[in-house]
Hints:
The complex is a heterodimer. Chain A is α/β, with parallel strands linked by helices.
Amino acid sequence: METKEDRELYFYLKLTREFEDRVSKLHRQGKILGGVYSGMGQEAIVVGVCYGLRREDFISPIHRDMGAFLVKGVDPKRLMAQLFGKKTGLSKGKDSFLHAGDLERGVFGSTSMLASSLPVATGAALKFRIKKEPYVAVAFFGEGASSRGDFHEALNFAGVHKLPVIYVCENNFYAYSTPQNLQMAVEDIAIRAEGYGFKGAVCSGNDLHAVMKTAHAAIDRARRGEGPTLIECKTYRYHGHSEHDQSWYRPKDELIEWESRDPIQRFEIYLEKRGNNVDQIKDETEKRVKETVDEAVRFAEESPWPDGKEALEDLYANPF
Amino acid sequence: MPTTFIKAIHDAMFEEMKRDDNVFLLGEDVGILGGAFKATEGFLQEFGAERVIDTPISESLIIGAAIGAAILGMRPIAEMQFGDFITCGYDQLINMAATLRYRHGGRAQVPMVVRAPSGAGVHGGLFHSQNPESYFLPVPGLKIVAPATAYDAKGLLKAAIRDNDPVLYFEHKYLYRRIQEEIPEEDYIVPLGKAAVRREGSDMTFITYSAMLYPSLAAADRLKAEAGMEVEVIDLRSLRPLDWETVFRSVRKTNKVVIIHEDRKTGGIGGEISARISEECFDALDGPIIRVTSEDTHYAFSPPLEEFILPNVDKILAKAKALAAY
Ligand SMILES: Cc1ncc(C[n+]2csc(CCOP(=O)(O)OP(=O)(O)O)c2C)c(N)n1
């Protein structure tokens, strides 16, 4: 039987895919400048982890995590305007892309410096601990980012203080062109948790239910004060590293194999198995998704550019 | 055939690796991919994975490992995918590389190069547009170069590779494919620490480097056409050591100075140059020393913001004309 939760999960999966697909197209048309990074193929991770999080829970998404913004309730219109560099974007044109957050919805805007958000998410968890608040912090990162000291420094501290933080590694086996075997001598990033005194878990990042089960167990433990977890989701990005990259360094059949494990198709099969009329749900969802994305694009296109001198604003909380 | 700025960088490394097998490369995606900007295309095939190393994302490791190999006689070239990420290896550069020889009483050296694609103007946003040279300027022990032409890009990189000190090589990515020129086939170097006079003049001196050379030259041409002024344009090329002799000689000739750089005004090298000129040539000055730089803010993404922030020909012209009126 169909449930409200199934409907919502399906909506977010489809919304994420369509949103990113549209962003790729707009980038090709020259309407979105700069670097654009697609998380296509990895949607189940962000949707599965973020679905059910509270507004106060803190997340720090990375460059492929459009879905995390959407599930956490960031307005798709402002998100699209952000990518366009418009005044109505989250950063008012200061940067494009996902370098702006929406702290009212617990979404932190990262920098480009990979893994730099892990110590910050750890600090958010520290606040929850100090104030005895029942919230969690979730930090997303790629396997590539886990090579930086910031990753290790964050996990070490979280382990010492048993902080309510969940580190979610989206392992898509490539850091730009660099395959995993040139990045680390271990197969599972999750085993590193042991070195910091807490548990790691590996799951399929293309299986929404596997992600949800693993993540929700970790989130519950964190809320109960039982400390951090390092979750590794094995997945694959369909597109190149950025939209400028043809990713010829990856074997063709690898992509085909992963496409056969598509997270959205997989969820549709699940819906079907539960006795739903999938065609009908699909039609309805696609219509709703298309309306949402169309509206976001229209909003972004019609929004004004910032004024040049606004470049000098927002530097200080207490300007002189 | 004209050589682009990026090809000049490619060729400098290629020729040096052929010439000296102590030269090797390390950085993110320098091997299989041939570099994010294709600076090392074909290197893996030519020199193999022992000398062209795709590293993990770990700038501290990239720079630190380069230091370790360099003190034992290798000549590593470390690539930062974007210059902005050099901050992630800052400690290794500032505390380790820069002080190494000093604290070993002169009995050690660190012959290494860190290549860092820097600069704005390509819609890179906050973290792909910075000009990090001023983060390093006060640090003794490091050398800093920033070429503007393809000829210099090649010659300075070769000199940097052969130099026995750690050299930061800031290559402006705006120039990669926009600049090209005929350069000699035979081996040559451009010595570190020597500026180039790109245009002779007696009415005013423009001091600049890297991508700002081009709007500076264009502004000089327009001042000639519009006001009959002859502007001397100095391309510093090396920021540390800096060729003060060429700077002071020009100031004594023209008596008026505009310093143009893309880095921000506060703490940028223009302040240092201005102060030194006041100390050394105060009697020769016929007006204030003027700076045209980026605004004191972050390198914002949105096109109208980026345009507002960056120096351009019109901004240089306006300042130069005001100075000319003194
Ligand atoms: C500190 C730092 N170094 C280099 C880069 C350039 N860079 C951006 S994304 C990327 C690859 C990231 O790989 P991974 O963390 O596995 O995430 P994925 O892109 O595969 O999702 C690199 C090298 C960066 N953003 N930050």
